[in-house]
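Q: I have two molecules that I believe assemble together. Could you output structure tokens for the complex as a whole instead of separate predictions?
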Amino acid sequence: MRRVVITGMGIYSCLGYNLEDVAQSLYAGKSGIVLDPKRKEYGYRSALTGFVERPALKTLLDRRSRICLSEEGEYAYMATAEALRNAGVDMDYLQKNEVGVLFGNDSSAKAVIEAHSVAMEYKDTQMMGSGYVFQSMNSTVTMNLSTIFKLRGINMTISAACASGSHAIGVGLMFIRNGLQDMIICGGAQETNYLSMGSFDSIGVFSVRENEPSRASRPFDRDRDGLVPGGGAAAVILEDYDHAVKRGATILAEVAGYGFSSNGTNISQPSDVGSSIAIERALKDAGISARDIDYINAHATSTPQGDALEAMALDHIFSPYHTPVSSTKSMTGHECWMAGVSEIVYSNLMMQHHFIAPNINFENPDEYSKNLNIIPQTMEKNIGAYLSNSFGFGGTNSALVIKKIS
Amino acid sequence: MQREEVIKIVNHFLVEEIEIEKDLLTEDALLKDTLGIDSLDFVDIAVIVEKSFGFKMKPEEMKDVMTLGQFYDYITNKSN
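A: Yes, here they are, computed for all two components at once.
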């Protein structure tokens, strides 16, 4: 079976717009959460969000490329461009080799709503122009990136709620393992505009700690009151190990294991049983045991129920090993469709720079998180292998085990 | 509307919104081959034309419009 490695990374998030800045933010335990006044005007119960600027693309992309890109597509372009540079892959390489693209994305609400507004104003769909159709589909990110970067390999979007990005890496792993592709850009993208999260806010799961934005996202903390939405994009270059060695690429890490499951129960509630199945499958797939995991990047979003159930699952599997756990969502908020990839980038940066980023705002454990070794302050640590969890609505679960290459 | 005024408006949006180089905008420039305007660009141009000149461009009326000069003529005729 072919081994699959990561040879490049790119990130565009509320912690920074490149790998270096994000590494510094992670080490410093910096929060990227702000209060967005537009959300209050729109009628949100909570106006908290991770703040990400729209990138200036006029000097980077031609008009056709720009008008077909949705907001999350813009973020994805920035992250992908950095990941390709990081992997030493240029346009000449992309034209001579078959490279694929798999992104996790599960909405493009702004484009849909804006197009609808045009139709309402003019009563004429022709007045929407040519861009909205390419911005509106869930596959907007992959259809645009494949066009911009002239990609000729596997080209599709994975939609699996808040596990979308993680599954995209898992599916990419399988394509390369099976010899169907040598290199795939795997990513996750998440729009951050106020139009995109209103229906999520309506079910009352967002934190309302609006007077303290940087303290609102507090996974595993006893006083957590909900998640904070965030977004941006992240990308990793997945590659066959031998292929990477042959072209002299720097190997950042190995994607050693992928585990998945579906709870088969409730549409909004997670499950400790389903989570455990995905985690144990990922460990088995990686051929390692729970004791070999040096760090767990938890899914924990700061919701009362979700964090408790993940804590139960982690305690069930890792209790003898006192494994360090943190949720970077304490700083980023919940990056939803993107989170499964951004959290791989965050964790790889920790692996590269030998530290564990803190689970900020973890002040008091609850009855479940007291059983975990949650890291509230930055910790110097050599990470040889880590686990990254992602769980989503509909009970979809994904877990990835990433190792340092040996 | 006078043809000179049409030229001014059309050239402005071709440069500013469709991002065509100003130096290419000559009367005999071919819309597709010289200016690189494709079918999707025409969708956007139709929106701009309707907002700027108050009429809807129809594909069947455009089939003989090959050059920029012919495009100026088409808009001048339709807007009068």
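A: One point stands out. Chain B has a mean pLDDT of 96.
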